[in-house]
Amino acid sequence: MNAAARPLVTVVIPAYNAEKTLVETLRSVSDQSYDKLEILVVDDGSRDRTFDLARDYGLSDARVRVLSQHNGGVARARNHGVREARGLYIAPVDADDVWHPNKIERQLEAVLKFPGGNGVAYNWYAAIDENGIIFGHSRPVMHQGNIFEPLLRENFIGNGSTPLMPRAEILRCGGYDAGLRDSGAEGCEDLKLYLALAETLPFALIPDFLTGYRFTRGNMSSNAYRMLQSYALVMAPIADRYPHLARDIEASQFNTACWYFKKAFHDGDHAQLQKLAPMMARKYPSRLIVHGLRQSWRQVKRQGIRIAKRVLGKPPTQPKIRFTAAIPQVGAAFSDRFAGLPATTGPISSRVAENE
């Protein structure tokens, strides 16, 4: 990428009581192969050493600037960073998530192929635990271009640490909706913004698992009941604007509820299950019956196919792979995915001089 086509990218890191993970997140940002970055850490009224750690980290990377606000939630923290940003593009990352070193470079190359560079880029993610160990990954969907309707049916972006977005378009859409938190339904602010952007902008896919999305007990995404409330509030006005998509939206809400129920069951989170089970039985009685029958039929069908192939001596069917990215290996560290890459070289000060 030539120097004339190297726009400044602002990384916005909302951080609340993030002393355990913030430095790891900052390192993954500092080590990006695309170095023309402004890195804004927005301390959201933390009560631990978050602010001090961010300030100290800035002593070794002058691209880091630390902002602070009274505790107002992740949406207000992100909006604060977007308002203060000098970059043409915004790349948000939560203070417990991490990036592959090539994430921003590959996303920017894709976005700049759009007319005027006016579009959004996203990638897939690996799910990591408290220790950065992979235990799953997002479904590798292939949606590009106009993704509004597919995104209504399934939040395949899946988190707030993945996209690269034009700052002007974020501001045009009103930023992240802090009103969801005020309504006691915090959680889907990122999805709401992605949908608003997708109504008018094309999206580019980087077909690789470039985000390490951390799941920890007690983080926002683990509160299933609140996330579903947030999801319903986000989808209600969209269903009013697009009545022909109402059935798709209802199916999406049901599938999302099922996903959270399965996650709570797998995690042994009985408190979430006690909230989700009666809510789903009350809201989706007929869908639950149909879903159960379909799942049973699919299980019987798969078992029948396996038995038939075993009898006929045919090998198991291999899944079709339409991309070249390595599938994240469960039990491996996310950092292992880029262990062989060369480290970022050159003094920070020389990179900063070009950025300003």
UniProtKB/TrEMBL annotation:
Gene3D superfamilies membership: Spore Coat Polysaccharide Biosynthesis Protein SpsA, Chain A
A molecular function (GO) term: hexosyltransferase activity
The entry's keywords: Transferase
Keyword Transferase part of the UniProt annotation: yes
Domain Glycosyltransferase 2-like: 10-144
Superkingdom as given in the UniProt entry: Bacteria
Listed InterPro entries: Glyco_trans_2-like, Nucleotide-diphossugar_trans
Protein name per UniProt: Glycosyltransferase family 2 protein
Organism: Rhizobium vallis
